[in-house]
Amino acid sequence: MKKKIACLIPVRSNSKRIRNKNIKKINNEPLIKYVCKNIFKSKLIDDYYIASDDYKIYNKIGNLKKKFNFFKRSQKSALDISSTEIVIKEFLKSKNDINILILVQITNPFINSKHIDAAIKKFKKNNFSSLLSVVASKNFLWENKKFSKPINYDHKKRPRTQNFKNYYVENGSFYIFYKKNFFKHNNRLHGKIGTYEMPIESYFEIDNKFELSIIRKILKK
Length: 221
Prior knowledge:
- By secondary structure, this protein is an alpha/beta fold.
- It has a single domain, classed as Alpha-Beta Complex (Spore Coat Polysaccharide Biosynthesis Protein SpsA, Chain A).
- Helix content is 25%, strand content 24%.
- It is built from six helices and nine strands.
- It has helices spanning 31-39, 55-59, 84-93, 113-125, 179-185, 209-219, and strands at 4-10, 25-26, 29-30, 47-52, 68-72, 98-104, 130-137, 167-178, 193-197.
- Strand 2 (25-26) and strand 3 (29-30) form a beta hairpin.
- The protein is globular, with a radius of gyration of 19 Å.
């Protein structure tokens, strides 16, 4: 039996900070459908799955249901306090033919199939154990203390931004890892970790109404 590369998109009902976040409109389409349309043309992914506790969310992708399968996640994995690792484990335990999993989080809708395929190639070429999407940043970071100190530069020798070495911010868009390694570590990130750099606009995630408004403006056609 061929070992497949699968994509898992976890979504749940009853989001708290933004009500019905997963079906909010982006360019006149539900968020879940917008992301699915962006990634379904991957040349390397064999199977796509939407893991949800509510079939109504899955219905929002319309005719894309021909491409995306529904996975019924448990109520335990759909709680506010539940880690994504719980639904990953539920899903992978039910699938024997998966080798590599791409976990896609739709709260960062800047992803597309070209990003995914390039990241998978990098993941394999470099023999990474796991990989995450990131955004380059030149921000000067400080500790949040009464008497603060800079984290990533010397304030006495303030560098020019054009000479400042990039660091990378996890943007929460996607993660890649082997099924066998996930069960060994119980974590999506483990072992030799690689990064895939996405465009700067993908720094934003839909975590509150303000960020949703920003993302709508950036992606507006």
